[in-house]
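Here is this case:
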Amino acid sequence: MSSFLALNHVSFSYHSPQGELPAMTDVCLSIEKGEFISVVGPSGCGKSTLLSLICGLLPPEEGEILIEGLPPGASDVRIGYMLQRDHLFEWRNIFSNVCLGLEIQKTKDEESTAYTEQLLKTYGLEDFRQVRPSELSGGMRQRAALIRTMTLHPDLLLLDEPFSALDYQTRLEVCDDIATIIREAEKTAVLVTHDLSEAISFGDRVIVLSSRPARVKADIPISFDGMLSPLERRNSNAFYQYFNMIWEELKKDA
């Protein structure tokens, strides 16, 4: 049986008048449906490029990317992409912000509006539906950004350091919120992060990339006793063992 998402010997380079800049080489990766994968690696190694390749924004120069056996452009799998910043529009209230994707895709109707209302209620933003983004905390804005993504019923979520702009305390709280939302919805997710603690507290597996051009150095399964939240994972003994294991892999590139 084929994987939900497969990268088979993928290589990619950026080209400019100054020459060629290899971003990744011979990357092989397999992700099953419902898995939450964290990707870490040195700064500038190509983690964000990996997400752009998966969603079809960039075509691989070598190898292939398959989602349910088909290239990204040919697959019916819906992909949601959550960026580092929330990109909420100040001239729109929260409700109209989270409906933006529905409007762009011309799928805003009674059913999708009711689903959006339910998401706002479930994740604590129902009372803020008419306010402007500047009136919300950073964590609430990120929840609104995720709801905007979830309204489109994505099957695969790509998360490009979505918590990096938050202060540490808010980041911990929002990590718990976002992880709960994604896991309850049984979504497949790929998280790119510089934060090893975040990678471990979220992931079912942590993929360690080498320095540029990126290749997969390690694929580390993450397992904790019981269904622990990200914050609970950080307080377990196993957490520190995983942290040291991943840190040792990263140090080999230093």
The beta strands are 5-16, 19-31, 36-40, 62-67, 79-82, 156-160, 188-192, 205-209, 216-221.
